[in-house]
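Ops channel
N.P.: pipeline sanity check, posting one input/output pair.
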């Protein structure tokens, strides 16, 4: 176990050194290593501000399972799941109030990352914020609750590293494993937009900025 933990630290350190590089994962999918590194403290501070008004919570799937990932939202639209299904809504069901507004640092990061990946003019109206504690995972799924799949999704990884699963157009297609570390940004558009994807159970570790957790921001044009 100790050896494994050292190996994980070493891999994360090597990946952090790739900050500033870009990698085409597939047609329409671009990994921008470290794109959010300089902005990360401000992004995390904004997450705290959002969570003070719309706390992280474990949503229930339509099948009645409690999700291991804790979620909240910012922006005019927020993604929710409950016994009646998955959807975007303007109000936080916990408070009945609108979701906290999209902070300027969020909107700017999403727009500049999308532009760097070839999607100029991206103006998200929803940011789903996922919080992973050790053991939390996201099983393979597609993101298709948004109205127009012509818009990309921009994802930002903060805190602990994770192994991302990048599958194909069918659930049974073999998935690539892509390690994502603090500050990495991935833009998913074009033919990659409806690919199956997920996140492996988070390994136990500590990050200097987030402690024992990983935060993922996904920016969407949902409405
Ligand atoms: C590939 N979140 O919130 S972000 C999600 O790390 C979600 O929390 C994961 O999947 C996370 O829906 C992965 C990467 C991601 C997001 C959207 C995609 C990859 C995608 C849409 C299409 C293809
Ligand atoms: Fe997703």
């Amino acid at each position: 176990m100790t050896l494994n933990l050292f190996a994980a630290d070493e891999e994360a350190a090597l990946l952090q050194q790739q900050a500033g590089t870009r990698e085409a994962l597939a047609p329409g999918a671009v990994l921008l290593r470290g794109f959010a590194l300089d902005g990360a403290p401000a992004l995390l501070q904004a997450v705290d501000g959002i969570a003070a008004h719309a706390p992280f919570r474990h949503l229930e799937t339509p099948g009645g399972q409690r999700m291991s990932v804790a979620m909240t939202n910012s922006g005019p639209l927020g993604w929710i799941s409950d016994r009646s299904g998955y959807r975007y809504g303007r109000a936080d069901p916990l408070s009945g109030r609108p979701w906290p507004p999209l902070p300027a640092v969020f909107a700017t990061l999403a727009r500049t990352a999308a532009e760097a990946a070839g999607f100029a003019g991206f103006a998200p109206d929803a940011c789903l914020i996922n919080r992973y504690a050790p053991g939390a995972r996201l099983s393979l799924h597609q993101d298709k609750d948004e109205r127009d799949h012509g818009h990309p999704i921009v994802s930002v990884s903060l805190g602990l590293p994770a192994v991302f699963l990048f599958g194909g157009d069918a659930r049974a297609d073999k998935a690539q494993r892509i390690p994502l570390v603090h500050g990495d940004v991935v833009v998913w558009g074009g033919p990659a937009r409806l690919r199956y994807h997920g996140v492996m159970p988070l390994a136990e570790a500590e990050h200097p900025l987030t402690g024992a957790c990983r935060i993922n921001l996904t920016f969407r044009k949902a409405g």
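N.P.: looks fine end to end. Residues 128, 130, 138, 143, 153, 155, 186, 188, 192-193, 195, 197, 199, 216, 218 surround MD3 (ligand 1) (CB under 6 Å).
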